[in-house]
Amino acid sequence: MALSSPETGAPGAGTPPAAAGAPPTAAHAAAAQKAGTPPPAAVPSARTNRSRGLLPLLLLGNSTMYALYVGVPGVLLALQVESIDPAHKVANFGLVSGVAAIFATVFNPVAGALSDRSGRRNPWILAGGLLAVPAMLLLGSVDTVLLVMIAWCLGQAVMNVYQAALTSVVPDRVPTGARGKASAAVGLGLPLGSTAGALLGAAYSDDYRTGYLVFGVIVAVGAVVFSAGAREERMAARQPVPVRAQLAAFGSALKDHDFRWAFIGRALLVLGYFAVAGFQLYILKDHTVLPAGLRPEEAVAVLMPVTGVAMAVSTVLGGWLSDRYDRRKLFVGASAGLAAAAMVIPAVSTSWTAMLAFAVVNGLGFGCYMAVDTALVTMVLPAAQDAARDMGVLNVANAGPQIVAPFVASVIVSVSGGYTTLFLAAAVLSVLGALAVRPIRSVR
């Protein structure tokens, strides 16, 4: 479903989109000047209607992605690594995740730049989604730590091809005035996908090979449905750029003051969140005092829906309120602070009740943060014509820490001898993430 007409041009390849049906504002003119393009003309109201039709597809595409991102490393991969070498599970899991981070970091911005050059997003979404099936099959078939690491690196590569193109859809096709709602649809994918991922991971905890295949198929189906439903018009093709110039361009995005601080804030908050989330199964096994008869895998399946509901509520409210009051930084900073407070709860108590309280408060903070921060980021992109590339660079701050976090967590846990220090370190990272948005100048 194309969201721009031939007359107005594709938003990702030309000017930043204005609110549908409204004349260009001073903010649009400033954004266009920053991007080196003329101020945008008024666009038809039909574009807003089309963007509304895109929201369910964005929700589906992101939900399937997060289901795999949570269910695979959070449950199945952790169980697989533990089954291979129980005595060294923390170090091995950190090693596998840390090496895979390199692939996630490299493939995300590269895939974004390739989709920019091709003028299309859907083929990359479809290719990444379909390749998830053989990647997950391979991951389930190996039985050494080295082969698990190689297979998970391949899985990260194809999933980041999928993620880079999918993330670029919002700045490409959604008017600025509707990006809070679009970001909420994207953000809702995290609680819904996380809940589905945790439930499926627990369901297949005794048969992780089949579980891997199920997750691959889910992503593939999501990619097919999105590509079929969100038909797009080809943007202007980009001329091939030498690899050295591409690498320089990736770095140039971080020279932009506001984009750099948005990058830093996202990286800090996501690192703190996933340092804990990635080790959740081991935390429930080795740190939390569970009620009699409750297995750690079952506890994960209880916590994730609790977190998911809290996250869904704060995602919707955060996106709507940030649009209504046009205050992105305030909501981003406050929600990051709330996420920091959540980390303190299990640091001072090992009870199951403390973990439930942590799940609620953390879900409220992280859900609002991801919804509003995504909207904020689309407003500080250095150049509209490089939207996918720059969102790919930003996704280094999103995808990279998700995978690096278990490696960092394994070092903290190994040195400190427990998980209390890990929670406190995550709280500090969240506070720093909240403070990082203060220097941003172009967004309130």
How many distinct domains? 1
Largest sheet: none
- The best one-word shape is globular
Radius of gyration based on Cα positions:
21 Å
* Distance, first to last CA: 32 Å
> The CATH topology, please?
Growth Hormone, Chain: A
CATH class placement: Mainly Alpha
Number of helices: 16
Low-confidence stretches: 1-48
> Helical amount among residues, as a percent range?
over 70%
Q: Which structural class should the secondary elements be placed in? A: mainly alpha
How much of the sequence lies in strands comes to: under 5%
- The CATH superfamily bears the name MFS general substrate transporter like domains
In total, how many beta strands? 0
CATH architecture group name = Up-down Bundle
- Give the averaged pLDDT, no decimals: 79
Order of helices and strands: HHHHHHHHHHHHHHHH
Structure description:
The protein is mostly helical and 444 residues long. The protein has one domain (54-240, 249-436): Growth Hormone, Chain: A (Up-down Bundle). Helices cover 76% and strands 0% of the residues. It has helices at 26-35, 46-84, 89-118, 122-141, 145-167, 169-173, 179-203, 208-229, 243-253, 257-277, 280-286, 296-325, 328-348, 352-378, 387-416, 420-436. Helix 7 (179-203) packs antiparallel against helix 14. The longest helix is centred in the first third of the chain and has 39 residues, at 46-84. The radius of gyration is 21 Å and the shape is globular. The model is unreliable at 1-48 (pLDDT under 50).
